[in-house]
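Summary for the steering committee. One of the milestones for this cycle was to obtain a three-dimensional model of the protein with nicotinamide-adenine-dinucleotide bound, which we needed before selecting residues for the alanine scan. The sequence and ligand used are listed below.
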Amino acid sequence: MVAVSSPPGLNTLDALLDLLRDRRVVVLAGAGCSTESGIPDYRGPENIQRTRTPVQYQEFVRSEAARVRYWARSTAGWARIASARPNAAHHALAQLEEGGIVRGIITQNVDGLHQAAGSRRVVELHGSLASVRCLACGRITPRDEHQERLRSLNAEWMDRLRDGGIEVAPDGDAELPASVVESFRVPACEACGGVVKPDVVFFGENVPAERVQDAWSLFEEADVLLVAGSSLTVYSGRRFIYRADKEGVPIAIVNIGPTRADDLAAAKVEGKLGSVLPGIADALVPRGRPRASA
Ligand code: NAD
């Protein structure tokens, strides 16, 4: 294991650069990568007071009221998600992949912003908001298309929402009063009439085995695991930490605030990803440098 600890006062960024230089890096990304694109995280310092709990898988499947609540909020908040653009952190990760430092990204994010920035090898552990899936027949439909059905079925509802001055939260899950949610109409699958769900892994749902395998295959290429913007509270991401620790793969972290791997990290930088990652990318992959061979 490459032990690069960072005693207080030492330049932690230099320690991180030493750890990453000339090594194959696999990134474990989380919601912190996208906050600078306007998509909130769950457990950042600004969200301590949040009371809203995300919908659970079993609840969504069993309860029509839960689905009405989910789709009403999601319909109201979608424009903000759909218009989000990659920030400097996403671009830096793409630059590091282009330069042959980053082998790929295992992301817990569902917003597609890594790919939008140009990252090529991305395992979307928790799926993607860009499509919806029928739980009965498995039909996949682009979210934009589904959004049109949601909007046309709820045209008056959308008008009332606009007139009502209701504040839309920026993460695609707007806060709406129960009285507003109740009158929302949820479209069924066009092919079979089944229940339609966003193609993301909800809390209480397993990550598909094939996708976990893709993530392990990428992980196995790592000399270093770089955690970017994740509290590592969710087990499906934290499992990579356990294996890295077991196999002596050094763990590097860039995050604001604590993570569940701080005591295992060989180097940690507390700072904004949109500032720290471009600095790392420019130091390790000066722009214009040709792509390194694998
Ligand atoms: P998390 O909310 O648990 O942790 C995010 C961490 O990033 C926090 O510690 C926070 O302080 C830090 N952070 C926030 N902004 C930062 C910045 N600019 N620079 C550096 N650090 C920053 O997120 P998680 O660990 O990814 O787990 C959240 C779960 O919710 C995941 O399963 C994910 O699928 C889902 N989620 C996804 C999105 C998205 O797709 N953008 C957004 C919210 C939640």
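Key point for the committee: Residues 30-32, 34-36, 39, 41-45, 108-111, 126, 171, 229-234, 237, 255-257, 272-274 surround nicotinamide-adenine-dinucleotide (CB under 6 Å).
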